[in-house]
Structure formats: C-alpha cells, structure tokens
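hiii so my PI (J.) wants the whole complex modelled not just the main chain, which honestly fair. so below is everything: two entries, each one labled with what it is. i double checked the lines twice but i was tired so who knows lol
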Amino acid sequence: MNRRKFLQKVAGAGAFLALAPKVLAQGAKAFGEAALAPMKVLGIPLTPISQRAATENHVVRYISDTLPSRHTGASFSPIEHFQGLITPSDLHFERHHGGVPTVDPAEYRLLIHGMVKQPLMFDLEAIKRYPSFNQVMFIECGGNGQNGFSRTPDEAMTATRSKGLVSNSEWTGTSLKLLLEEAGLDERAKWLLVEGMDGAAYTRSIPLDKALDNCFLAYGQNGEALRPQQGYPVRLMVPGWEGSTHIKWVRRIEVSDTPYMTRDETSKYTDPNPDGTTSFFTWEMLAQSIITYPSGGQALQAEGFYEIRGVAWTGAGKVKAVEVSTDGGESWQEASLQEPVLSLSMVRFTLPWQWDGKETVLLSRAIDEKDYVQPSRAEVIKAWGYNHRYHYNGIQAWKVLEGGKVVNGDDVLS
Amino acid sequence: MNRRKFLQKVAGAGAFLALAPKVLAQGAKAFGEAALAPMKVLGIPLTPISQRAATENHVVRYISDTLPSRHTGASFSPIEHFQGLITPSDLHFERHHGGVPTVDPAEYRLLIHGMVKQPLMFDLEAIKRYPSFNQVMFIECGGNGQNGFSRTPDEAMTATRSKGLVSNSEWTGTSLKLLLEEAGLDERAKWLLVEGMDGAAYTRSIPLDKALDNCFLAYGQNGEALRPQQGYPVRLMVPGWEGSTHIKWVRRIEVSDTPYMTRDETSKYTDPNPDGTTSFFTWEMLAQSIITYPSGGQALQAEGFYEIRGVAWTGAGKVKAVEVSTDGGESWQEASLQEPVLSLSMVRFTLPWQWDGKETVLLSRAIDEKDYVQPSRAEVIKAWGYNHRYHYNGIQAWKVLEGGKVVNGDDVLS
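here's the output for the full assembly
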C-alpha cells in the first residue's frame, strides 16, 4: 500500500482528535522557560562529526551479564528503538568468537587459493577497484530468537532480547564471483573454505553455487567503511543465510571439492532433531517478524489510537505480507508494508489500532514469497522440541495488561 | 540495469587480470607478521556501542577556516568517501544560523496555530503516536555548489567542497497534513510560517499546497533519533526543496493566508537575475550529479581498469539517467544506476573505464524524469552570471593528469 492510500485509510479530518486535545491540555504551560531556553543562547558550533543527543544514550546494545567472557558471545540490537529500516552501524548486533581484531588496512590481504588456475592475493585497494554495488540486506544470527526454546517464557522479555540478533544495513562491496573468476576455478571446485582474521581463525564452508549466485565481499556499511565489529576492512556477505557464514575480517578463501566440517559447522550451528539425528548446513534463515511497538517493557498511556509497528524479514527473498492479530490470534489483519519492499532486506510493517484499555495479546506473522507462514511457538516446539538452539522463528506474543504495561505473552506449553 | 546484467557487461573470466597479478606480486610478503598479528591475540570484547576504526578518522566534514563564526555557517559532507546511498548520520552536512540548540525532549512542544479551527500543542510522544512512515530522501543546501560561481576555479577543489552540501538519509516521521487536519484548516489558509527553536529563531514561509502534498515532521534518521545537528527532536521535511526550508527543532507552525517574507527568504536564499531583478521562493532543487571517484585530491595508481563512481539527485523526482564523458565532453556514455532508483533520493551511478594513462577530463550530467539536463558551467554562468549564490548545478569537471593526480577541470570562462 502506498503512503497516500495508507493515509486515506487511517486518517480523515479529526480522526485522531482523541490524541491531540489531551496533549493540548498538557500544553498550557508549554513555551515556558524550559521550552524557550534554547532560543536565548547560541547553540553548539559546527563540528567535523556529530554526536547523538545525550538524552538518547540509553539506546545501546544488550549484552547478557551471564556471559563467561565478552570475547565470545553476542550483543543484541535494540530493535524496538529503531525507527526505520536502517540499523545504525554502531548498533548492529555483534557475534564474535575471539573478540574483534584490530586490522591495519594497509597490511590487509585476501588470498584466494586451492583449486584455482592461479592463486591471487588482493590488497584492500585492489578489492575496491573492482566493480562495486550496494545492497540493503539483513544479517541474522542463526541463534536469534533462541529464548523461544525456553520452557518458561520470561515475563520481562523485550524485543531486543527476543529477536535483537538481526540488523539491516546498506552494504557496499564487490562480487565474490568476479574475484573467483579472476583466479580461475578448477573444474573440480564445489566448495569454499572462508577464514577470518580473528583470534578464533573463525572458518566456515560455503557451497560454490551460493558463492557464484549472490555472495559479495563488503567493505562499506551504511555509507561508511565497515566498523571493526562488522569485519573491517572486508567481510563476506552471504545473502539470506545465517549470520555465522558472513565471515568477518576475511583473509583467505580456499577453493575445494568438499566441505571442511570445521568446528563451527559441526559442534555449533547444527540442529538436533527430535529423532536423535542432527541437521547441519541449515543455512537459510526462515521468515520472521516481531512487533516492536508496543513491545515488552513498554507501556501504553491510555486507551485510544496506537500504530502497531514492527519488522519482518526472510532469507527466502521477499516478505509477501505480514498479518497482525490484536486479539490473541482469534482474528488477523494484513498490515501495511513500507515501500519499497526489497528482497533479502528487512521490511517495516504498521497497523492502526484502537486500544479499548482491556488486556489483550498482540501477535504478528510474516509470510514469505513462497507462501511459507511464520509458525506459532507451539508449532516450533512441536516440530523441534526444547533441546534446540538455532533457527527459532516462532511468533512473539506481547500481552498488553490493563493499565498499559506490555509483557511477554508467550505461553507456557505443556 | 540490474546487477547480473551489469556484471555480464563488465566482467568475464579474467577481465580484470590487469589488476590482480600486480597485487599478487605485492602479496609475496603478505601474511607476514603484521598481517597475522591480529590472529594471535584476543580482540576487543563486546561493547554496547561501536566506534569507527581509528584508521577511518580522517573521514570528517569540511569546515572552512575563513568563517567569521562557527555558529553560523555550513559544514560539508565528505561525499567522495561515502560508499553507498546512505549518508552516515554523524556526517550529514550542517547549515546553522545560530548554532545547534540543546533541546530537552521532555520539554519539547510543537504549536500549530493561526488560521485553524482549533490550535493544538503536541508533545514529542503525541507526534510519535501518529501514523509513521519512512522515506529515503536527499537534503541539499540551496547554496550547494556555489564555488562554481567563482571566476577562478580552484585547482585543488575536492568533491566535498564542490558539492558536499547534500546528504541522503532514511527519514522517519509523520505526515504534516495529518497534524494540520487535526487542527482543522480555515478556508482562507494558504501559507505556513514554520519556526525553529534555535538562537536565530530561524523562520520560513511554506505554501500550504506543498505542505499538504508531501511534507512531514521527522523524528528519525537512519534508524535512530535525529542528531541535534539535524533538528532533534523534530524537524520539518520538504521533499525536493532547498534544505533551508527543512526547519530544524521546529516549535511553531502558524497558518496564514500570506507568506511572511522573513529575513531568510528575502535578504538570503534569493537569486539576483542578470537584468537586475531578484527571484525569491526558488525552492525546487535542480538535477545535479558529481563524480566522486576519481575526483579532486585523489590519485590513480596506473593505467588500467577503474570504475567511475558518483551520485546524482533532483528535486524534480526521479533521476532518469546519468551520462558520463571520459574525454572532456566529446562523447558521452550512459552510466549504470544502482537499483532501486527512488524518487527524491540520491542515486549512485557507475561506469567501467579503462584509463590509458594520458591526461583527460571526466564529466557527468544528470537527466531528470522531466528530461531536464544538468547544464555545463558555461551555460549556468551565461544564464545567471557570476553574481549568484544559490542553485548552482553546473557540471563538475575533473582533470586526470598524466601520473594519475586528479584536479579541478572547470575552465576559466571568458
């Protein structure tokens, strides 16, 4: 739905007056000393670079205080504070396996070797000279949402802690296919081993078909150079696949005819099945969505108009629709999607809602372009059980209590 | 052109080998101590918020050192360092008239009054409760490019100083039309006076038609709250019009039947004509483009493959095409535009180029959806003369010297 149609749908003269007069009453004392103070002094002069307002410094990533070490673990993006599709670069979620290496761009090298006609070593300047392109794209940790596997949902759950291991940025880079073609692929080539320059020598196997389809080497994020936490100076991008394949600080790509079964694709990032077997190489991220407003930890002021807001994404390509329920799943309405809806990018959805002041449960479910529907928590647990760690994409329920407080609405399952 | 077609066009096995072997030779000593050092230590631990790499700290805004005061003036975005469409929020160009006020969001109020049925006062929370939307949009200062009016082009010109008073962001906000409808417009209403909360009480007149068409009140930029330099907590957005109409820290919108002829729309932001008259209310920004790589101050390494890169934008809506000349204007080729091309957003263009090592001049010209073609510097000067300050949109020429140094290629005109 375009913006004009949307406004026609939700608005009309005086449609929101239930909101405004209340504010007007509060405003009787506005433009008092405090509101006028900034106009009476010279402000901050021009600066080479801007800082955020001090009153926004609470918007930071969440780091669990139970981590044994902050060198191996994750920090969560504060997704309920974000107001668009772009995740600010300094708040993109992190997942590291040996801390963030400090790489001197002048010393940076990328080696492509193995089953190639001619091994090549690129410096950063060479990589940047190749044809460039930009793609707005989400990255999601394979472990995002894993709180959903808990037997006892945490009432104090927030959107950050529920699904904050996902972020969305404009990435700039060059085609991996192009660089592989420069080296010349041996006809036996079927797999790549991609290795990072961190203390963990973090390493994953990538099928050559995927690499040639749409992988790229990124050196830019949201207009600037990658931040160290995102792989400065160069990281691999594997659109739609679990974040752990997007090797940061990439130093080496070895072409092979077989996967390498590295530590982080065998002991981790694998999925135990209820029948006792284990699935590995489960790369593509499933359709997900989450309501970020209202969401856990927030509070509504009073009954009246609210715009339900959230984000959705899928590794399958485009989000086709997002449906929202404001009555705990008894009925569903199709939300508006912010245009343009881009493949493999997050999409923002909204739905106008009149809250009657009574307790209710809000739900959202994403539907991807292949008509896959995001499942309920009960469906995920039924299929995979509790002994699981990755690829949880169950619906996050938020319960709005009388009085406006919002808490986790996920049920305790049998 | 989509990415696949583009790669087919420019690539093919070994198409760039002229680049790579040179790098390979340099790479013989790579993976020496310096390149491997980061792998031998634990890196930086998880952090609530990330900093840029220290080696990127040269990417900052430019501020002229001849300004009488840094409270009134502009800082320029380092556009040749940007790698995508999004301008990092902390590097968005600035233009202030009395410094940047420090506004307490709890004390913030917006008054809509004048020719309305019911004056309304909104606090920040109320504004954010209205239906929201996002738009990727450029803002350009009306004075951008004014160096082009100089009789003596500066050989050391850079892209930053030439056209860096433009930036592009994803903005989040709510429709101004909606808030005006809440107040209820008097039938005499034809103009708005919009006033900022800065020390200059910076104030402009906006026609009601424009306000109802597509103006909005923004509180978010690139996913985060506006930075103080961009109007925290709320600014007016006037898509496609000169930046000076996008009132920051907006506190008051007064509805009227006549424009107000404020200081900053009479003594400034007006255009003297060669016949001695003066044009005012020249709001819409004209089609522009600039090559950012290679551009002034940069240096090419050696003959061979380069991708010419740049950005284009127009207040008229969509950029339809960008043409590039690599021979000083004798011939022109159509550049590739990064998709999606969004109306009123910057667009990125690229053109593959083989440099033969000889001196030449690079040019780019944007063509908008109404078939308006960005003029040459000579055409602009012929039409408007040198005694002009705003809306310069002449082509920026870059001269590539033998040896690879890039300097201003603008001619001294008669």
